[in-house]
Amino acid sequence: MRTLAKDIPQTARTKPEEEARVSGWVHRIRDMGGITFVVLRDRSGMVQLVFSEASPPAADLTLESVVSVRGFPALNERAPGGAELRVTALEILSRAQPDLPCQVNGDIARMGIETILDNRILSVRNPRIRSIFNVQAVIIEAFAAYLRSQDFTEIKTSKLVWGGTEGGTELFEVAYFDRRVYLAQSPQFYKEAMVASGMERVFEVAPAYRAEKHDTPRHLNEYVSLDVEMGFIDSERELIELERGLLAHIFEEVSRKNAADLAAWNVPAPSAEAAAKAPVIGYEDAVRTANEWAARDRPASPGASGGARIFDINPEAERFLCEWSLAEHGSDLVFVNEFPRRYRPFYAYPSDANRTMSFDALFRGLEITTGGRRQHNYEAFVETLPRFGLRLENLQNYAALLRYGCPPHGGFAIGCERLTARILGLANVKEASLFPRDRRRVEP
Amino acid sequence: MRTLAKDIPQTARTKPEEEARVSGWVHRIRDMGGITFVVLRDRSGMVQLVFSEASPPAADLTLESVVSVRGFPALNERAPGGAELRVTALEILSRAQPDLPCQVNGDIARMGIETILDNRILSVRNPRIRSIFNVQAVIIEAFAAYLRSQDFTEIKTSKLVWGGTEGGTELFEVAYFDRRVYLAQSPQFYKEAMVASGMERVFEVAPAYRAEKHDTPRHLNEYVSLDVEMGFIDSERELIELERGLLAHIFEEVSRKNAADLAAWNVPAPSAEAAAKAPVIGYEDAVRTANEWAARDRPASPGASGGARIFDINPEAERFLCEWSLAEHGSDLVFVNEFPRRYRPFYAYPSDANRTMSFDALFRGLEITTGGRRQHNYEAFVETLPRFGLRLENLQNYAALLRYGCPPHGGFAIGCERLTARILGLANVKEASLFPRDRRRVEP
Lengths: 444, 444
Hints:
By secondary structure, chain A is of the alpha+beta class. The first copy, chain A, has helices spanning 8-14, 113-118, 120-123, 127-149, 188-199, 236-257, 259-264, 272-276, 283-297, 315-329, 378-384, 396-403, 416-424; strands spanning 20-31, 36-42, 45-51, 66-75, 83-94, 153-154, 160-161, 173-176, 179-183, 201-209, 222-231, 280-282, 333-337, 358-363, 366-374, 409-415. β8 (173-176) of chain A pairs antiparallel with β8 of chain B.
């Protein structure tokens, strides 16, 4: 029977006279002459092993080797966690070569991001890096659980598509037998189709692809998209209400289950209360507010004094709007709605001649969601296409979706890595992807 | 406030004097002269609407249009479900064109599979087809929930890979900026990497790709793979034990939550008790048993009498082994282990010179899982490569996985569509994929 590292203090209290067995990785070795202290790391945490003269020799051990040891658990105030294992038997299950390409037990601030990503098998062993993916797993779990509680059905749709819903740009091409298909940029069409298929409320957790050439701390060419779509809505307001509740639940779960992970990054727990009452600001007001805060931020900087210098909800505006929301509404989450038609795709539902029922969610300075109500009326859809330079004959599947009974509907998507990164305050979204892909990186 | 169709009987009992509003699709129209009965379908079920002379005219309605109606709920023994809504107001939210390409309210046995797949937006509206995806959603939910309860961490890994773990065959090529990458056949390497990264126990739900040219009722070119990997195991027996518990939990949840869906397909609930004690049979015994059952099945057929005619666990053997398991062990699930090395990839862990610690799971006549313990020893891995015609320089990422401390480990994958199809007795696995991809089909 294996005991987990985290349970050794308890075992030392209740069964000190029985040998226990622990297995894991050699995290640290401190040779004190006659005695060697080894920190063993397993999936649950760490425990100190004590090799004395009565133990098998520890001289053979290398950092990151996988071992299984037996020994007597003992309370020791000076040991991390208050207990240790006094080793009586040692088995080396896998000897690590000493040329480790990165230092697992060190400070990750000293590892560059390229080293971290080049060596995922080793870098994820670092408890602080591991904690990123503990948070991510809880985000995905809470996302699905909340939506199921609201009567949503989980769907899985194809990532191989005949073309992009939003035109043919920024698509990766796949050689599919004797033809060309593309990797889906989003499950947009499919989730709308499943709402119209009578499921009404659907969600999907799946990869999405953007063949964008630029390499920024905000972008991934492959990311995990947390997608939601629902029928029988009147406007984007119901979607914002849904996302407030959804994020509040995710934040609650992360606060509850990832306290140690948040502590490892020294960040406050995201506030469920603030998310549940996050403000909504119209696009025009948002641009004005961003400019006001920009002026306030750098009153003496050139260009800031003489009027507006932010003309869109760009990354700079996102940061200022989040500052504004936190200061004025106590919320690090803010929704911007009423985006102009020129910034939204053809399927965005117009609220008037110039505006759409669409929105973004900004969280801690970064856009994490785009969403909105979609056009469900076939005639209006056909009429709109020329404005976007699109042709009906290229959108036959979309047309079929609207021709045979499609309820008013809308949805949104949350970028899973972006949300993870903003919760933990990571500088680069790639840190929140186990195996990120960018223009240069396709390994490991 | 919208009332769901399933709640109308209750509303008719408790608030018959209040108008209720229901929304959904026009499933059936029966014009009786002065009175028209319309069956409305929403995500929860169906309800009968009654249009009398006091109601707005129903003449405009077309099948599959989306409507919102108000009316008084009333108990009526002759109505399906025992209640109906007597309509006072009608709003047509989306008028369906009358040229429906398939009949939603008919018998799906009359729809060919190509019609079903060509018209997913309509065919999924058929309650029987919809039920397939209700079952699938529960499978995915139960899979994740059980593994979390066993301390597994959910991971999301890249589907764009530099090459296939198992060599370069049957891969789809992706044009990735100025280079070529491939769609992952499985997350095999990544899940092993995350076990070795200290997560120890991981699972992933994600698409997987096989560029197999043959088009059979068993194969999909894109499928949802339910992947599991765990560290610190001694043999495949622990994996089989895990999968027994996992499938038992999935079957329990499907039995509990999908009773109506199982009834729609007239199939028995899969037995959790049988799964929990499913038999394990070695490869050689399995081949012998399959031949015995083949001979018993068709004693007079040519070739069957004169000795063995099954030489491998092929689809025919899978069917006979499941018959044997059901007859002799009362289980529609059976595990075959000890597969010969020649049938398994290089990373399969050898139990002796000829056999490996690997296994398949067969369920109701079909292989739904391949798995096994993997090689974790670097020297043994290097030694094995030439046997498989592989070169170390092409497997550097795999080598790094084993060089720096890798615990004994193994795992398995369940084909989500195959499991769904076998639970419901679907003839073709494509029926269990919302948007299946095969050599000819990439739309919708």
